[in-house]
Amino acid sequence: MMAVTVLAIAVQRNLFSVVVLAGIYSFLMATVLVALDAVDVAMTEASVGAGISTVLLLGALYLCGGEEAKPLARPWLPLAVAAVITGALVYGTLGLPAFSDPSAPIHVHVVPRYLNEALRETGVQNVVTAVLASYRGYDTLGETIVVFTAGAGVIALLRRLRRRGNGEPR
Amino acid sequence: MSVAGHFASHYSYWITFVLMVAGLYIVIARGNLMKKLIGLSIFQTSVYLLYIAPGKLIGGTAPIVAPAFKVYSNPLPHVLILTAIVVGVATLALGLAIAVRIREAYGSIEEDEILAADRDGGERV
Prior knowledge:
The structure holds two protein chains of two kinds.
Chain A: H1 2-11, H2 15-35, H3 39-64, H4 76-93, H5 105-108, H6 111-122, H7 127-135, H8 137-164
Helix pairs in contact in A: 1-2, 2-3, 6-7, 7-8
Chain B: H1 3-29, H2 33-52, H3 75-106, H4 111-120
Helix pairs in contact in B: 1-2, 2-3
């Protein structure tokens, strides 16, 4: 179903329907994430991916106008690149552990310590929150810096439009 | 291991790759800047799957500690991807702002028209 949505996005040329399809895609991705036990990520994906991204895309659509110009002229070179990369990636899976293998490296490195000690060390029951805010707090601090920089960049770019008076304020 | 057995035990990776390559194809093949940004975000969501799918344990639950459960899925990829989602929407916003600005300067967000305008040395705002 997700593959179908992605194909529709690739083929569709009306940008408004592409934006709506991207929202549907985000909700499907959130559903898959729930199935993979990543409830926090699913919640974030549903609100940020399907909510904020769609609003941003619609705002940009309003400023840029809605129709894509023409179908691609030579699709064969990009298709060949895509096929080669698929082959390389599939070859890469030969060395990876199987799905849901409890002895895979990802499950035996630092994670048992987080799961066993997080409640005692931080007092937070949700281990994701404990790791995010406590063990890896600097990551989250860096993330807020990235978001701040992006927000400042957006404001700097769009304020010029407004000052000249020929663009709509966002 | 046989091909079918390999596919059965690694299918989550294969799905991830389909999404990844589709996003990459949109980025390369499509000239419209907004379409390119959407392709980029599809690529990005495939990376979420690439991280989170190996962390799943069949029979496990979400990593919220409770006495009733013994097996939890891996919380570390969830944390990394939470960060990635937020950074992703920040880059998307910045990219869209640049697209709006390009449209303001060139009157178009189609790649070939922008390049043609650049070649002609036409006047820009």
